[in-house]
From TrEMBL:
Residues 46-124 form the D-glutamate N-acetyltransferase-like N-terminal domain. It comes from Sphingopyxis italica. Residues 130-326 form the D-glutamate N-acetyltransferase-like C-terminal domain. InterPro entries: DgcN-like, DgcN-like_C, DgcN-like_N, P-loop_NTPase. Pfam families: DUF1611 (PF07755), DUF1611_N (PF17396). SUPFAM superfamilies: P-loop containing nucleoside triphosphate hydrolases (SSF52540). This is Putative NAD-dependent epimerase/dehydratase family protein.
Length: 345
């Protein structure tokens, strides 16, 4: 287990999307976050006290979480130096980057000398099976997106909270570094060998017979040429009964690819439904989740209303507006269950 409380690392990052792991922890596990560490050239903040490493230890922090994301998940020299300093100050270090902490000699040596622990969150289980596509009991919702980092994790976590508030059984199933740090478990899907992606999700979301929902965090996009493979395997392994479409309405192009325009909502929804039908022919869309954080309240409400009218589905910003319309739609469509639960063979 990763010891809390946490000091959240922002480093030199000035890309809002680049600190999504730290921001996710600050939003969904605020009681476990004592402060943020950032250099002077970092203009972003989570609204937490800015602390040095020794100051954070004095405030009770036990682990530095390297809560940044970059293309390829690489660990630069500055980050390694900061992590060494954190260990020397008395902190464990946790990271979800593709580069592993254990592969950095300076970190391994310093941690060993000070008796600290290195946590590599992006290590998948060694016993992942190959997916088989057999029908399994239970109800599953998968968040899909027009692009990467458009709010799929936020949407599913907000759904989990709201469903619990209604007395519904629901479990968030994490598939990325941020979700795993928030939930305490999950599968780092982008670190799984391609042949095992669908099997990893079948393992993450096994049969359930309590009439509850598995809310599966989506990854990537079928329209992003860098990550569409992960999205495809996730759609097949999730065997979703319901799809929730997530979108950032102010994004000008696919993340990191200015030569690729954003796809349309209907286009994205149709493509995801088609791919998902391989393992669940009865899959259906249940709503649209927009990230309206850069819009005024009036603009956000107007856009959600227009989107709902255009697609014939409830549309909301899960974080700022709540998810009641989507849950109402789910209850209407799936209570009682739309198909008989079939036990895994």
């Amino acid at each position: 287990m990763i010891a809390s409380p946490y000091l959240l690392y922002l480093g030199h990052v000035n890309d809002e999307v680049g600190i999504k792991t730290s921001r996710g922890l600050a939003v969904f596990r605020p009681d476990d976050c004592v402060g943020e560490f950032r250099h002077d050239d970092c203009e972003l903040t989570l609204g937490l006290p800015r602390m040095g490493f020794a100051e954070a230890v004095a405030a009770g922090a036990r682990t530095l979480v390297l809560g940044i994301a970059n293309a390829g998940g690489k660990m630069g020299d500055d980050l390694v130096r900061d992590a060494v300093a954190a260990i020397e100050a008395g902190l464990d270090v946790a990271s979800g980057l593709h580069n592993r902490l254990r592969d950095e000699p300076a970190l391994v040596e310093t941690a060993g000398r000070h008796g600290r622990t290195l946590h590599d969150v992006r290590d998948p289980r060694p016993d992942i099976p190959i997916g088989n596509g057999k029908p399994r009991a239970g109800k599953r919702l998968l968040a899909v997106g027009t692009d990467c980092s458009v709010g799929k994790m936020y949407a599913t976590l907000c759904l989990e909270r709201a469903m619990h508030a209604r007395g519904m059984k629901a479990d968030f199933r994490a598939t990325g570094q941020t979700g795993i740090l928030i939930a305490g478990s999950g599968v780092p899907l982008d670190a799984v060998i391609a042949d095992f992606i669908s099997g990893a999700i079948e393992q993450l979301s096994p049969p359930r017979d309590d009439d509850g929902w598995d809310l599966i965090e989506g990854q990537g996009s079928l329209f992003h040429p860098s990550f569409a493979g992960v999205s495809t395997g996730l759609l097949h392994g999730a065997q979703p009964d319901a799809l929730l479409l997530c979108h950032d309405p102010v994004r000008p192009h696919m993340r990191g690819l200015p030569h690729y325009p954003m796809p349309g909502l209907r286009e994205t929804l149709d493509a995801n439904l088609q791919v998902a039908r391989l393992t669940n022919p009865d899959v259906r869309a249940v709503g649209v989740a927009l990230n309206t954080s850069k819009l005024s309240a009036a603009e956000a409400e107007r856009l959600c209303a227009e989107t709902a009218d255009a697609l014939g589905l409830p549309c909301t910003d899960p974080f700022s507006m709540g998810v009641d319309p989507i849950i109402d739609w789910i209850v209407k469509c799936f209570e009682p269950s739309p198909r008989k639960a079939t036990l895994s063979l």
